[in-house]
Amino acid sequence: MNPVDDSREGIAGMLVKKAEEAFVFECAENSRPFYLPKDGSLKLQFFYIEDLCKIIERIIEKKIPQHIINVGNEECLSALDWVKLCYDVAKSPLKIKNVRDNIEQRKYFPFYDYEYKLDVTIQKELLPETTSMKEGLVKSYEWYKNNKDAVTRKNFIAYIDEEFAE
Predict the structure, then answer these.
(1) Cβ–Cβ under 8 Å, residues 146 and 75
(2) pTM here?
(3) Known InterPro entries for this protein (predicted)?
(4) Terminus of the chain with fewer CB atoms < 10 Å: N or C?
């Protein structure tokens, strides 16, 4: 995979026209309850796109022999904690609705039901400090507010309104 391909889950930040953060921000701005799979414990690992650019720059500068390098925040966080951070950044109160049915979560939630934790040892050698999740989300939200039309959306809200209507 091309290391700057923004279609990969977990890449976060300005200029990434993705549905993940935008969907949560849109729900927050419209004071919608957030439909979360199961108990929200699914672990997610992100990486801010500006940090990815710094890594690529360092790889080129240092001419490192590794051709494949995992990148990601060192710490994973739960889907629930990620949603809480997104709502917090958007300054919106959060109401969670847990979905415990056997409904494919990609129909209403932006990530598949699988976890992974990348070994980012080489990345840490190249870039010891990375953007915090909260700082990255603040920057992403600022970008989102000014570029809503540039975001590639999925029909999560339409599905939620149709399938989970109360």
Answers:
(1) no
(2) 0.85
(3) NAD(P)-bd_dom_sf
(4) C
- Compute the distance between CA of residue 106 and CA of residue 63 in angstroms, rounded to an integer: 39
Q: In the chain, which ranges are continuous DSSP H helix?
A: 19-29, 49-62, 79-89, 121-126, 133-146, 156-163
For residue 78, list its beta bridge partners.
Answer: 43
Domains and CATH numbers, the chain: 11-137 (3.40.50.720)
End-to-end CA distance of the chain: 42
Q: What angle do CA 143, 148, 151 make, to 5 degrees?
A: 95
Give residues with Cβ within 8 angstroms of 139, minimum separation 6: 13, 14, 48, 50, 131
Residue with tokens 């969670």: 96
Bridge partners of residue 77, in order along the sequence: 44
Report the SS3 class of residue 44. strand
Q: Is 141 helix (H, G, I), strand (E, B) or coil?
A: helix
Per-residue pLDDT tens over the stretch 103-125:
999 999 999 999 989 999 999 99
CB 123 within 8 A of CB 71: yes
